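queue> pop job 88
queue> type: inverse folding (structure -> sequence)
queue> payload:
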């Protein structure tokens, strides 16, 4: 095994030398009192803070950076500094590309070497499933212009001579990968920021963040209090890293989902043959190897990491002693891949604090509770990789109100208040994210940690009826049903580490393993039976986790006019599908809006003056939509209130050809097209039987809307009445319980959009084929960009694809037109009624306009794990072109109705 240098004198000298380099006096830092005001104050002088300062000052913003000690003294200074190219997510690929551009251009900007080394990177696969994952990355890279090569073991060994070709199956090589020196990069960034007018204050701890409550009762940042004075500002960026939660508490935010861990690597003795070799990631054994000169830096992610309660305020350039009982597994893995490393010594060990989050994504964006407080932290040991790209987006976010990219998966608004108020949820979820950092990313991954954070009222009833749950934004919702089984999500057992015993009941874990594939799920036929039950008879979907909001107040109508793209000047019983846009015309949410008049005072029909609106949006983005509405109210100083009643109401949706007959058994309300038209709502009474007046009756709001493309209703029931209503419906002959896996398949088959997948904040409604939702008159937010796109055309366009080959597609597969890559699928699934794979994506034309002729004239292929499959492009879904099924028009025999092309343009949906 490795020879470990235990001489404490040598180690002390190494540490002191590093400290000396980083403590040397910087002419860029000032020692005098701080300025009295600034446009933006950045707290934290690590790589995230330096990148943010650089990007803001580059755009002419008067920005100040405050560091309580020395620049890089927190977690930045000890990072390995690896920068890769390929990730299983298009956003991350874009951010990595931007980071590489920033780092590679710093030397030219500053005139000094900035620490960027472009030595390439290589992913090692030891298994067939890992090879399939790498083939997906390779395919996505083709679509996004990121070069990569598939290498056999012998070809890989030529690039990295220490590799043993017999222990792995293949490698994926990315020539644009490299490393960045953290100290050099930060110095270069602040040098340029200073030239652009930015100010940097080292040894300037923040004592408090001042905020006030405005006339609408919302918190607003007003100043930052330091030990050298107060800086007035309306914008603060929290770049505190592992100290980020402490910075947030200054502004009255009780918690951020950031947990510090000890993270380590070792520096090996020289091996001259690796000079200029690429960096290595061996995901199958949780290992990485960084090449620096003639030395290997070896590190990884272990299953039993050290989690820290908190990091002391006065910790600077700190290193912990390495725990070889924990870290030793990485040495064994490195030796198995590179046998020569078993025979060389170790120069030094590096073990420092790093911040990790519950889903292994950074925490960015404006806090929903304090206007003007932005976060840019929680980088999960990937700060050097992402922070340069994220710095660009943060600057755009602060200056223009929204980032250029769709940043929702990094946005703090992806977390709910309920999640962030639970310390155990943050700790166990962050632990699982750390442990699974290098695990294969499957399309239908579900976490084991942080579960059961939020239930709807009928959760136990669903479990008793065989529901297998999945988690979205802390809510448990049914993925599919296994009738006759009772599968409970177990308490997180920490993988049997840290003295926790493994769960005795592992049935849920074993069911999840059925989705550990890039082929069709083990549960494919089960999900298909639920989808076809909806198409051919009727299915009952629990959609209770949806966000449910009331918009009321004297300025509710003005707020709605600004926020929603659709025409809401309709009768009070209408349900309107609408978008909410940002100032750049990007889609922040798609929602259904029910126009209301004051009701009887119940949860589903509250009392209020004037016109009000009942807004239903995706559950996983409900906080995002709520914050967007509140920002509009704040910015325009409107007297309006948004009330979240998501917990107080359940949604039971009955959809399918038989849905009208089934619901009619429980209500005396008319359900015909004349009595209850499509896209209307009303309060109805439900009972065990509509014919027996002695049965207990429950009132609810019924919406005639659908996300499956079938005849159907959503029943919005007060949670206190949800159990008896569910019991009555679920026991009805001809009605089958169905889950979200079936529903998302049905929605894609119909061609309905799913927000944050095929409809995002970086998509214009005209690009997405949703121009019909945007009124041509009015001053709704983003209108000018919609008008411009209508007039001038667009450079990308939403398209729908079907494949005749029975292959599994999930999204992120490359789209080829006439042999050239023109985009990638945003979402893919199997259409059980059409009986073929379907996908949607946006087609580009090398920056030129994309017209209908351009779309229709091409020959298309979809690349799935390296293999291209002939695809047919449709401008709309090849299912029910005229929307007849939603009207209940199924022909003489609805069960043999033939599918045909099109999309109902009055309905949409959110997951």
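queue> result:
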């Amino acid at each position: 095994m490795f020879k470990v240098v235990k001489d404490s004198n040598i180690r002390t000298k190494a540490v002191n030398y590093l400290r000396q380099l980083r403590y040397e006096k910087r002419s860029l830092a000032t020692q005098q009192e701080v300025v009295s005001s600034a446009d933006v104050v950045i707290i934290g002088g690590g790589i995230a803070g330096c990148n943010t300062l650089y990007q803001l000052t580059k755009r002419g913003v008067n920005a100040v950076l405050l560091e309580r000690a020395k620049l890089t003294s927190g977690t930045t200074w000890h990072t390995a500094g690896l920068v890769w190219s390929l990730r299983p997510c298009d956003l991350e690929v874009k951010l990595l590309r931007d980071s590489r551009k920033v780092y590679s251009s710093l030397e030219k900007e500053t005139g000094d070497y900035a620490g960027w080394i472009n030595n390439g990177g290589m992913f090692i696969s030891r298994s067939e499933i890992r090879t399939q994952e790498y083939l997906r990355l390779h395919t996505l890279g083709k679509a996004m212009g990121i070069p990569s090569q598939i290498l056999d073991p012998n070809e890989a060994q030529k690039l990295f001579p220490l590799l043993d070709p017999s222990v792995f199956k293949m490698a994926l090589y990315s020539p644009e990968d490299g490393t960045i020196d953290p100290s050099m990069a930060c110095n270069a960034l602040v040098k340029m920021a200073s030239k652009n007018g930015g100010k940097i204050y080292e040894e300037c701890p923040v004592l408090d963040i001042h905020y006030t409550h405005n006339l609408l009762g919302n918190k607003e940042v007003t100043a930052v209090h330091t030990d050298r004075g107060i800086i007035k500002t309306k914008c603060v960026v929290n770049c505190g890293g592992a100290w980020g939660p402490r910075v947030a508490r200054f502004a009255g935010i009780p918690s951020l989902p950031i947990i510090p861990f000890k993270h380590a690597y070792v520096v090996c003795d020289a091996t001259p043959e690796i000079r200029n070799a690429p960096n290595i990631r061996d995901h199958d054994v949780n290992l990485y190897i960084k090449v620096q000169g003639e030395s290997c830096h070896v590190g990884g992610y272990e299953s039993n990491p050290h989690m820290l309660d908190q990091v002391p305020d006065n910790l600077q350039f700190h290193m912990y002693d390495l725990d070889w009982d924990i870290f030793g597994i990485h040495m064994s893995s490195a030796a198995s891949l590179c046998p020569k490393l078993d025979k060389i010594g170790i120069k030094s060990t590096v073990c420092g604090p790093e911040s990790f989050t519950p889903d292994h994504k950074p925490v960015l964006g404006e806090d929903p509770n304090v206007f003007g407080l932005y976060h840019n932290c929680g980088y999960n040991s990937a700060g050097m990789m992402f922070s340069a790209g994220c710095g660009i987006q943060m600057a755009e976010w602060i200056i223009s109100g929204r980032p250029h990219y769709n940043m929702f998966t990094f946005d703090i608004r992806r977390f709910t208040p309920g999640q962030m108020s639970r310390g155990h949820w943050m700790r166990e979820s962050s632990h699982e994210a750390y442990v699974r950092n290098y695990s294969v990313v499957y399309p239908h991954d579900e976490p084991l940690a942080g579960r059961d954070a939020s239930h709807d009222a009928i959760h136990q009833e669903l479990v008793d009826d065989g529901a297998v749950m999945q988690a979205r934004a802390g809510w448990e919702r049914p993925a599919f049903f296994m009738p006759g089984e009772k599968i409970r999500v177990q308490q997180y057992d920490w993988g049997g580490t840290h003295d926790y015993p493994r769960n005795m009941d592992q049935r849920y874990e074993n069911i999840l393993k059925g989705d550990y594939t890039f082929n069709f799920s083990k549960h494919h036929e089960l999900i298909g039976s639920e989808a076809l039950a909806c198409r051919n008879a009727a299915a009952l979907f629990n959609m209770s986790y949806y966000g449910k909001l009331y918009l009321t107040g004297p300025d509710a109508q003005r707020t709605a006019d600004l926020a929603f793209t659709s025409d809401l000047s309709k009768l009070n019983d209408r349900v309107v599908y609408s978008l909410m846009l940002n100032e750049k015309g990007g889609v922040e949410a798609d929602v259904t809006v029910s126009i209301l008049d004051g009701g009887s005072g119940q949860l589903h029909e509250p009392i209020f003056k004037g016109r009000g609106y009942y807004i239903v949006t995706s559950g996983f983005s409900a906080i995002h939509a709520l914050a967007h509405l509140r920002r509009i109210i704040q910015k325009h100083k409107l007297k309006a209130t948004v009330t979240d009643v998501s917990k107080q109401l359940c949604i039971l949706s009955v959809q399918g050809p038989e849905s009208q007959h089934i619901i009619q058994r429980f209500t005396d309300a008319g359900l015909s097209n004349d009595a209850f038209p499509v896209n209307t709502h009303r309060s109805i009474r439900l009972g065990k039987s509509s014919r027996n007046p002695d049965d207990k009756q429950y009132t609810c709001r019924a919406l005639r809307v659908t996300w499956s493309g079938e005849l159907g209703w959503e029943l919005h029931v007060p949670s206190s009445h949800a159990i008896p209503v569910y019991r009555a419906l679920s026991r009805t002959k001809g009605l089958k319980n169905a889950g979200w896996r079936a529903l998302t398949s049905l929605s894609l088959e119909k061609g309905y959009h799913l927000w944050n997948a095929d409809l995002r904040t970086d998509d214009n409604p005209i690009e997405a084929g949703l121009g019909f939702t945007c009124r041509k008159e009015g001053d709704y937010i983003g209108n000018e960009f919609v008008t411009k796109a209508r007039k001038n055309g667009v450079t990308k366009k939403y398209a729908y694809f079907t494949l005749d080959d029975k292959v599994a597609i999930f999204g992120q597969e490359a789209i080829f037109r006439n042999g050239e890559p023109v985009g990638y699928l945003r979402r893919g699934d199997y259409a059980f009624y059409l009986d073929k794979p379907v996908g949607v994506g946006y087609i580009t034309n090398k920056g030129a306009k994309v017209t209908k002729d351009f779309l229709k004239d091409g020959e298309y292929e979809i690349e799935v794990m390296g293999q291209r499959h002939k695809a047919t492009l449709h401008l709309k879904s090849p299912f029910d072109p005229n929307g007849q099924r939603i009207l209940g028009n199924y022909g003489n025999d609805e069960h043999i109705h033939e599918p045909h092309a099109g999309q109902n343009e009055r309905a949409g949906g959110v997951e």
